[in-house]
Amino acid sequence: MEFHPHSNLPPLLQSFDQFHVNAKTFTPLTDNAPYHPFQVAGDFEFMEVTLAASLNQVHVDKLLDLISCVAQGTAQVTLKNNAELHKACDATAAQLMPFSKHDVTTLYKKQDQTYEVFTHPVWEWALDLLENKLLALHFVWDAQHLYKYSEEGFEHFYDEPWMADHWWDIQVCVTVH
């Protein structure tokens, strides 16, 4: 066997029977940290999931906070998979007034286009909200006027619907029994 001249190795003379008998077998290096430069494999796997899900910085931070709370025992997550998540969402939605699906067809560029529209009766929704004991306490029933002081005196301003003049006028007309 002749080696390249730059190898500075002498030629090797072997019989065919001895060829590769003492050859060194290549043992690939084992990488004890294939997740490098991450500290642990879990960090690498977390990175893969967050990138695949296209999570933004806020979502990543919230998810890491939740994982930390679960690890510390201050929070608990019982969901085990996507099917359980959807089952929980469906159960929650069933407790709320459902939306109704309607097909609406309209002419657009000389062709009928049909769109799915989901509606929820406003009056029934308002009644549902009023029956909720946690929310009912936060409703404002009386019209209000707010004023702020400026160099010219007090100035009326609005920041909620019940502060509008029309609401005020309606309440003036309502008689108390």
Show the helix and strand layout.
Layout (H helix, E strand, L loop, with lengths): L40 H12 L4 H16 L9 H14 L4 E9 L2 E9 L2 H10 L1 H4 L9 E5 L2 E5 L7 H9 L4
Short description:
By secondary structure, the chain is an alpha+beta fold.
What is the C-alpha radius of gyration, as a whole number of Å? Answer: 36 Å
Secondary-structure-derived class: alpha+beta
Gross geometry: elongated
Q: Could you tell me the number of beta strands? A: 4
Q: What is the helix/strand order?
A: HHHEEHHEEH
**Strand content of the residues, in percent?**
15-25%
What is the first-to-last residue Cα distance? 115 Å
Oligomeric category: single chain
Number of helices: 6
Would you tell me the overall average pLDDT? Answer: 82
| Uncertain segments | none
Helix coverage percent of residues?
25-40%
Could you give the order of strands across the largest sheet? 1-2
Major beta sheet summary: 2 strands, antiparallel
Descriptive report:
- This protein has 177 residues and is of the alpha+beta class.
- The longest helix is centred in the middle third of the chain and has 16 residues, at 57-72.
- The protein has helices at 41-52, 57-72, 82-95, 122-131, 133-136, 165-173, and strands at 100-108, 111-119, 146-150, 153-157.
- The strands form two sheets. It has a two-stranded antiparallel sheet with strand order 1-2. A two-stranded antiparallel ribbon has the order 3-4.
- The model has no long low-confidence stretch (mean pLDDT 82).
- A hairpin with a 2-residue loop joins strand 3 and strand 4 (153-157).
